[in-house]
Write a structure and sequence with these properties.
Elements (H helix, E strand, L loop, with lengths): L1 E10 L2 E11 L4 E5 L6 H8 L7 E6 L2 E2 L4 H5 L2 E4 L11 H11 L6 H12 L14 H13 L5 E5 L7 H14 L4 E5 L3 H7 L2 E6 L2 E6 L1 H8 L4 E7 L2 H9 L4 E11 L2 E8 L6 H10 L3 E7 L4 H9 L12 H11 L29 H15 L5 H4 L2
Parallel strand pairs: 3-8, 3-9, 6-7, 7-8
Antiparallel strand pairs: 1-2, 1-4, 4-5, 9-10, 11-13, 11-14, 12-13
Helix pairs in contact: 4-5
Length: 385
């Protein structure tokens, strides 16, 4: 279980993450959405201990990621936005290296074969990572997150660079993993989030703007209750018939779609389900209904409405007492897998274990993050213990 309490990350006067509080239950797949710069990746980096928080707490199975990062990371498999690959290694050598870093106790050969089969990289197992396509590199990055079978998976844009077939395969894999793992999934492919996730958090400007299922968000945001019916029959008689159905507030005939066939936009009361009565009256008059659909908001509509300044307010934030109570009821059990100490912030792996091909840009980014964290942040000490 993951518990976030008043998590804040500040860079100078800029708050990248502003007082976030939420929980993710065991076996839940949480979709993490937001526009670019909203704080998604920063939040994930704090949850995994990659960077420290300015204030607040992130607890992994009851362990604060800053107070005891090594123990907390034993439960986490993390795929960052840029996969942490050693480009001059073969896939085989790299996954064996990760296996050793995580001190994995599962049977080495069988376990790595299972991971490669899950993410479909068996055919490139002996190849050098540098020579792989972007899609294969992304899948190798996902494979390293799965090594050790961690109970919590945090995946930042796991399908970036994949072709449509690969996206479907990874989407199916994530749904399968969600049966035994807790998953936080960030993606800009909203259909993917809607298809895979049990719950969605949308953050905007570093704050939580929405936290619920897609269905409940639709009900909270939109007060419209409309149906679009495509009917073959006399236009004026159809309009009159639909208007007489109890619960119908208005009906409008759209443009003629085919000869003698119109789309009828029907608005009804919130407590009225007119579909059965509508179908019955159409059939009784020997007209033909060619289609019936609702105009409920899609996840894309919800996302745009929340993040584009439409002043949508959704009360989703739990009180600290509720979060604490929920955590105390669920935070039990001991993680079985370990995450390498080399993934701790600013802690280096001995030079003899690191291939020469480590990306210098990644090193520069880590040094820049380290300097930002050191400026007046006392809590950063906990992340280096």
């Amino acid at each position: 279980m993951i518990e976030v309490r008043n998590l804040t990350k500040q860079y100078g006067a800029k708050k990248a993450v502003d007082d976030l509080s939420f929980t993710v239950n065991d076996g839940e797949i949480l979709g993490f959405l937001g526009p670019n710069g909203a704080g998604k990746s920063t939040t994930m980096n704090m949850l995994t201990g990659y960077i420290s928080s300015t204030s607040g707490n992130a607890l992994i199975n009851g362990i604060d990621i800053l107070d005891d990062p090594i123990e907390a990371k034993k439960s986490i498999g993390y795929l960052p936005e840029m996969p942490p690959l050693y480009l001059d290694m073969t896939v085989k050598d790299y996954l064996n290296f990760i296996y050793d870093l995580k001190k994995c106790k599962l049977p080495r050969k069988a376990h790595l074969e299972d991971v490669c089969s899950l993410v479909k990289i068996n055919d490139v197992y002996e190849r050098i990572i540098r020579n792989l396509s972007k899609g294969y590199k992304q899948r190798v990055g996902l494979a390293q997150a799965l090594v050790g079978n961690p109970p919590i998976l945090i995946l930042d844009e796991p399908t970036v660079g994949l072709d449509p077939k690969q996206i479907i395969e990874i989407r199916t894999l994530i749904k399968k993993l969600g049966k035994k793992h807790t998953v936080i999934l960030s993606s800009h492919i909203l259909s993917e989030i809607q298809a895979v996730c049990d719950r969605i958090i949308i953050i905007n400007g570093g704050k939580i703007a929405a936290d619920d299922t897609t269905e409940n968000l639709t009900k909270n945001i939109s007060a419209d209750h409309r149906l679009i019916a495509r009917i073959d029959g006399p236009r004026e008689e159809i309009l009159k018939t639909i208007k007489n159905i109890p619960g119908v507030l208005s009906v409008i005939a759209d443009m003629e779609r085919e000869p003698g066939i119109y789309d009828y936009e029907i608005e009804s009361r919130e407590d009225a389900d007119i579909r059965r009565e509508l179908f019955k009256r159409i059939v009784d008059r020997r007209w033909v209904m060619l289609g019936l659909r609702s105009t409920e908001m899609t996840l894309e509509d919800i996302f745009l409405k929340i993040t584009m300044g439409d002043n949508v307010v959704i009360q989703t934030k739990q009180s600290e007492e509720e979060i604490t109570e929920k955590f105390e009821q669920n935070a039990s059990g001991t993680p079985e897998t370990e995450i390498p100490e080399a993934e701790k912030p600013e802690e280096k792996v001995p030079e003899e274990q690191i291939p020469e091909a480590v990306n210098t840009d990644e090193k520069a980014a880590e040094e820049k993050t380290s300097e930002a964290d050191k400026s007046g942040k006392k809590r950063s000490k906990g992340a280096k213990k």
